[in-house]
Amino acid sequence: xxxxxITTYREGGAYTHVAELVKGIKANILIISGNTxxxxxxxxxxxxxxxxxxxxxxxxxxxxxxxxxxxxxxKILKKHKIDLVHIHGPLFTFCDGLIRKIKTPRIMTIxxxxxxxxxxxxxxxxxxxIRWITRYVAKKVDKVxxxxxxxxxxxxxxxxxxxxIVFIPNGINTEKFSPGKSDIKRKLKCxxxxxxxxxxNYQKNVQTLLKAFNKIKIPNTNLVIIGRGSEEKKLKALxxxxxxxxxxxxxxxxxxxxxARGADIAVLPSRGESWGLVIGEAMxxxxxxxxxxxxxxxxxxxxxxGIILKKxxxxxxTEKIEYLLIxxxxxxxxxxxxxxxxxxxYSWDIISKKTGDLYKTVIKQKKNTMQIQE
Length: 374
Fold this sequence. Notes:
Elements: E1 2-6, H1 12-21, E2 28-33, E3 40-44, E4 47-51, E5 54-58, E6 62-65, H2 69-79, E7 84-87, H3 94-101, E8 106-110, H4 120-140, E9 143-146, H5 152-157, E10 165-167, H6 184-188, E11 192-197, H7 206-213, E12 221-226, H8 232-239, E13 245-249, H9 253-262, E14 265-268, H10 277-284, E15 289-292, H11 297-301, E16 306-309, H12 314-326, H13 328-345, H14 348-373
Parallel strand pairs: 1-2, 1-7, 2-4, 7-8, 8-9, 9-10, 11-12, 11-14, 12-13, 14-15, 15-16
Antiparallel strand pairs: 3-4, 5-6
């Protein structure tokens, strides 16, 4: 099989999903992105990429590419004799022209946020836009993969045909994301460390975490923010040169792991997720996680593997962070149970096999349909 995966490059859970997914699929994989200034091919970590430059982005989620970009992608698909296109959400404007022009079998996985809480106008526009474009692309693909089974009724209410929807959850790389030794606290000269990683945008709610951290009264505690995004400058201004708040920017996984393994707590206060991949990654590192009630957080966290925020405001966040920093033995036990849970329940081997089987089925069905039409 020759497969094209259309996703972001080095940003968000969709990219992580693809990077892990393709390792277990027996196929020739080309990853096409449209969220950077890059143009053309490059090789990295054993993967082949082709990039279409982005002009600008909307909410760090939807990327505007040059008019006619889909023609470049169409040529690339023909060059590589692609058997199936897997779109990881309608992320790029070139996806529109592409799905209208090509006859190649295609699948879409929906990774992004289903619920968005902001001011009324922003919430209205976001929800209307995301529903419209998701429904539009779903009508033109052969199958839609849903990573959260509880969201299937939501998608059908949007007008997506139930028979098109297939449930395949995210996986966690528990070999890579794992506990281990780290000297990061010594380098940062701190005793306690709280960590966040993910995109720095409105949806991830990092501003509330910063406000909560500024209220913490436990001395010698650092907050490490890993990631980049449209709100980075605003968040750094909000940190107000607090020496105990560290912004690292984007970090490759091997460096990120040094921070995760040295941390005491992961705080992930997102306003919305479809699944919550970073929650699972933090749990796999043996960290107790404080998270908002998003995606499948309740299933992942349960009653004794972390803390679900009820109000998701700064006062509650401050209280829960201090509680776990003071009760370190309790936090350590939470982290151990968290790792065991994700290790026992989620595996990329399983997810890759299910997805690869779906590829074969869709390719075969499409081929049979075209033969009948001929």
